[in-house]
Amino acid sequence: MKATIVTRLRFCKQRVADLWRDSRGIAATEFAVIVPIMLVLFFGTVEFSQAVAVDRKVTLITRTLADLTSQAITADNTYMQNVFTASITIMTPYSPTPTRAQISEVYIDSNLNATVQWSQGAVITSAASQATLAASSRNAGDNVTSIIPNALLVRQTYLILSEASYQYVPTVGYVMAPSGVNMRDIAYTRPRQKSCVTYNNLPAGNCPTP
Asked: What's the predicted TM-score (pTM) here?
């Protein structure tokens, strides 16, 4: 009886020692711990890379809108709609649906006050082949001196002011703001064909410089 108990104790001791030395489950345990961290890093890298790419496209939109508008002598609603529609191609392969943009012409008077002469907004969506003209957040007469760089505040000159915003919503909301990140940019261009661009009879007269 005593020999049997001793044998069993030795067997249990050996089993415990074998279990202690057994490392077959370590890799699985380490994998289970590391996988969540690796997934967060992976999706985080993808989301931030896409966000940077979209932010760059927003910058391209503002520059393109300002450039196309500055090439006109006079502009009507059809011309402005076509200008805004260019944003759809620029946003490819990303959906342009959350894109909002507006173009304004600014006059800088002899006292270096920058005042909006006219402004037109638009909404760009992937559901339509063309942009939809919409009300701008700026109105004729608004003072925008504070947003004009000092180097561009030249007396009795006009500026084309282009603004665009895009609501980037990440696919995986755990690594970025789930509600999305609002991306904005602004661009300035001088009219090219004449000292100002006339839109809807504004500014009245032949590019006045009061």
From this structure: 0.78
